[in-house]
Write a structure and sequence with these properties.
alpha/beta, three-stranded parallel beta sheet
């Protein structure tokens, strides 16, 4: 009998961001490679990028990730959720601060 799939790997890429950010030509390839790695290692692999969806939005992410979680939790407990987002360039200190506070890392203790 095969083991239940209780781990999800979400691989997100945006190669042509809006605003002042520069294009990230390797982002989609990196996300595809990581999604393939995850699938080969027994994860449910969720790939989200501009090649598969017209636009990558927070609503799209919320919907797709929630559906994947529900698919697992309908059968078993979710053991692991990994999110991969390739970042190849940071453009300014304000971008770094905004990004950190958006994901909650600004509250980390200083070393």
């Amino acid at each position: 009998m095969s083991e239940p799939q209780d781990r999800i790997f979400v691989s997100i890429a945006v190669s042509k961001p809006d605003g002042e950010l520069e294009a990230l030509p390797g982002a989609i390839k990196a996300s595809e490679r990581m999604a393939a790695w995850a699938k080969a290692h027994g994860y449910i692999s969720l790939l989200i990028n501009e090649n598969l969806f017209a636009e990558v939005t927070t609503d799209l992410l919320r919907t797709e990730i929630a559906e994947a979680i529900e698919e697992v939790t309908d059968r078993t407990a979710l053991r692991r959720l990994v999110v991969f987002l390739p970042v190849t360039a940071l453009h300014s200190a304000s971008t770094i601060r905004t990004g950190c506070s958006a994901i909650g890392t600004s509250d980390r203790p200083k070393r």
